[in-house]
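Example record for the data management plan.
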Amino acid sequence: MSTIDSYSPPGNLDDLDDTGRKVWNNFISDSVEQAIKGPDSSKVLNDSPRSQFYDLTKTGTAADAQQATVSWTAFPRRIKVSSLSDAQRWQRADASRDVQDEYCEWSITRDPTSGKITKVMFTCEGPEYWNLLAQSDPAKVLQLYQTHISPDVKHGDLFGATGTYQPRNRWNDSTTHGAMHLVQVNNTLGAEIELAAAATIVRVINGSELTTEPDLVQCSQYGEPERNSDPHIGGAVNALARQKADISLADPVGLYFDDLKTDGWVTPDGSDPKGYWTRQRGDAVHPVRFVYEVPQSKGFTVGDITINGSPIQYGAQIADYISIKLTAVACRFGQSGTPPQTACVQFPAAPTDATEAAKHISALSLQGYHAAPHPISRTRRR
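Corresponding structural encoding:
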């Protein structure tokens, strides 16, 4: 069995110096350790500890290790199921980054005269990495924004008066001015780690082992049941846990682009539509940034490409064909002695005293939970 020396930056990016890489390793390791510990059992019942989750830097990965890639569609399912037509859902998804909650966000550039789409930026980079990079090398952050978003970006656009990085700045808070990294409140690496750890708890309710994605996400409350991502991630991880394996997230921990399918896409000149899908950040196995853009020399734009006969009028049409992934690693199959939980996650009644209630909510927030009128509605990703 062997451990890794340290966790690598997402996508094996090389932006950080040696000190920054050490801080990043500590952040991921600490996040994993907290996820293993789970929430305070006096505040959240039947959700800790997560003994089948482990830290790659502290516990060895055995020789029987298997990797499991879990992928899902980037288009936000909650928008899809609540819309009346394709046009309506595409328009809604393009309207705000706040609804792009499947660990993929995008921003659209249009020709000012024709209104046709000329470029769509897609990112799945977590905000935690950028907060660290901004603390260790503000000049690098500015350089990356100028390279990938616009040469017009200025230091003051990204950093406040005290020098603190503003993740939701004018170049990274909309679907029209650029997308450098994730900003939707639930799209964080911390949420990914917490979800994966919580999903390692095997549950046997009334004598029956839970195995379906809907049952697991409802009982364990590790995410939003209507998303593509949360139930699927949880179901895949729990399937490994039910094999009595120990589980972790593969290094480098992160969310990554899996693929872009272009079946049914047609370009004006017959060229391969996937040829305009360009990786900009992350290595080939762990890409974190893509741009869909047709070179000016081709004589047509993204808006001239059709999908199943309809021209691309929304960035969301492309998101329909993008998949996002994470990779789990499992080992020591058949060896875990962790007993299953025999009850679902529960939240004790909130204290009636206002001061105690405030403490209660604060404690939950530290674990990634959000205050809600009814305990049953609280989840890690909202």
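Summary line stored alongside the record: The CA atoms of residues 105 and 123 lie 6 Å apart.
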